[in-house]
Design a protein that fits this description.
By secondary structure, this protein is of the alpha/beta class. It is built from 8 helices and 9 strands. β4, α3 and β5 form a beta-alpha-beta unit. The longest helix has 21 residues.
Length: 286
Amino acid sequence: MGPGAAAKYGAVAVIVRSLTSALDDYPHTGNTNYGNNPKIPAAAISTIAANKLSELLKSKVAQPVQFYLKDNCQMLPDVLSYNVVGEIKGTENNNKYITIGGHLDSWDLAEGAHDDGTGVMQSAEVLRIFKALSYKPKNNIRAVFFMNEENGHKGGTKYAELAAQNHENHIAAIETDEGGFTPRGFSFDGVNPALVQKVNVQWKKLLEPYEVDHLIPGGSGTDIEPLKSQVPSVILIGFRPDSQRYFDIHHTPNDIFENVNKRELELGAASIASLVYLIDQHGLSL
């Protein structure tokens, strides 16, 4: 929203220092919202480039610093795309669902391995784990690969619309969209604090040996958020991995397959599967 605010004061362009504490040459990109303000060019530069620019501006040079900015961004027309959905049918509750999801699309700077290839694979892995264990859930367990999270979350919006249209009773929806790093716990979105307290009393001791017992109030995820208005009974949950390295990679050319640690990815999937199992067996209510 910065470029829109700057435009009101006469700015002709905006340069943003990338949101990472790492010193590197990987500029970040992201969404720009101008509101009703003039649309001026906006670009992020790497932390090394930002330091260099800052030094030039501070130095006593004879000539003013000139900055050349060329921006090739454009908004293309919408095209038809799809969510991908798979599920294990429940043995008791035909119309109750526990959903786990990540999103298929990514910024085009790189492969989108952590944002959100890891979330997609963890969602699929939850189903694979249950199949491998021959676990027969009480409720329908659904993995959803959402489309268009990065540019308007239309996949999540459509999923919520269809859930309401089909009168699906969603018990819980879990989103994994914060990278495939070491799991730390889960956040519960907009719920009664007493429910979070109950979850901690009943389940914290079970998750503590694996250090995924950080169960807190907080956000969930962009893709599952539309369910809140369409299916009011749903509990929205965000998977919370360690966040220290996320913005070294997020929306940069560095977000590649080689920067995903297989062991961390597996631990995250197993953590989500564990929570899904507990919800399936015991529910989520006061």
